[in-house]
MFS transporter
Amino acid sequence: MTETLEAPGGKRGLRGALSGGSDHPHYKWVALSNTTLGMLIATINSSIVLISLPAIFNGIHLNPLSPGNVSYLLWMLMGYMLVSAVLVVTLGRLGDMYGRVRIYNLGFALFTITSIALSLDPFDGGGGAMWLIGWRVLQAVGGAMLMANSAAILTDAFPAAQRGMALGVNIVAGIAGSFIGLVLGGLLAEWNWRAIFWVNVPIGVIGTIWAYRSLHDTGLRRPGRIDWWGNLTFAAGLTGLLAAITYGIQPYGGHSQGWTNPWVLTGLIGGVVVLALFVWIERHVSEPMFPLGLFKIRAFAYGNIGGLLAAIARGGLQFMLIIWLQGIWLPLHGYSYESTPLWAGIYLLPLTVGFLAAGPIAGHLSDKYGPRLFAAVGLLVMALSFGGLLVVPTDFNYWAFALLIFLNGLGGGLFAAPNTSLIMSSVPAHLRGAASGMRATFQNAGMVLSIGVFFSLMVAGLSSSLPTSLSNGLTAQGVPASAADQIAGLPPVGTLFAAFLGYNPIQSLLGPQLLGSLPAANSDTLIGREFFPHLVSGPFHDGLVIVFWLAIAMALIGALASLVKPAKHQAEPAAE
């Protein structure tokens, strides 16, 4: 099979002149700036909805805590990330075959069009939710096109001596985007929930036109056939597995969680079986979508293990910090529940600053001294920050909290660029698109897994102490013991979602009739800002201990994986 290198001349003469040409020293900076914008907008939209869910559900007149609406809530949370995780490998492989820039540019255009559709949601209630979920799925296809090919475009454009720096800027911008989305979502949701999607439109239009006019393929392109069976089994298996893990946090059959639900078990077992079939297919087709031979390269294999573990830990941290701030700390410090999404985003800024401070520096230094040590040190710093968060009280001093999340961001920034450089520099040039997609798959799958893993652990921690706290707290305010016990017996996942969304559920749990029968002082206390946070702070901390210990373990294992040296016949990632 012949490999082709697309020339910068010919029909691309004007485009080459605009960007300096693929061999012009300025082209690599054009590629870096545009792909960084693409990564930023794609990852901002993975979290901008996360913190804006109360405003979105109010805007479409849907109660997110109603049992029948929990599925809408979960798909709003995970749909974008799930589709991204499933498709990035396929879209990276298509980039290898048909041109990485071509797929990347199409992704920018699709992302912009779907953002317009999302902002124009014409329905209310369940119909409005389905409109948003459906268009978010299509938006995720565009986002996956951007994520799957940006690292490969940069690896093609930059020499090995500068590659770590370029990938560092790009990847850290992408990871920081998930935290910038929290702040941006909080700000825009205060004004109008549709603005969460409007904000993408001017950026997307500018980015799309810029990409089509200035970017062109500079790397090897290998024509081939699409592995349809591999694509189908991979998508079906990963979707079933990740969806089942996420749905496992919903109560079922009198249990606080749904791991005995036949549909969840079918998704778990069936997902694993279909993924095993996918591996068999990939080993027997001539042009696999997922080149399993890449896992024989130690830097690629262990780099992706470290990336997966870091993504799970980072996703878990994100969810836990939102619950901690919106459900407990901010109401205790005088913030209304309606304003907690905005202020939670603002108070999480040190996390983003840490990422932005460390990422490009770590990329530059890893170019000079090698990526493995920096990646390992980054995860060790993350583990240290998780340990610090374990010992701060639930009603913490903000500056201690800010320092710890800054350290966590710093560790994530130290890890991200060297880890990506380690992975991308270890693979053959013609497989960089597939390798970029595989790396993004592990990262996106880690974020989806974090929903199921950490929410399940938190529910397990709450189950042991929340019922007693609820019952005692309610009866102390004059609520009849029978009503208090009934509320205390409800699955704790509802309380967890309430804290996550910045809701005070006590008023809806008790109802107007019961609240009206209590003395005014007791009723005011129950629906005030401090009762619910005080009530759940102890049980929440019990769950937090379990979550953060697991995050520490993941960070330490990831650090060890990052330190694994290549086999003797495999060279260290270096110059080409």
Summary: Strands lie at 4-5, 220-221. The first strand starts at residue 4 and ends at 5.
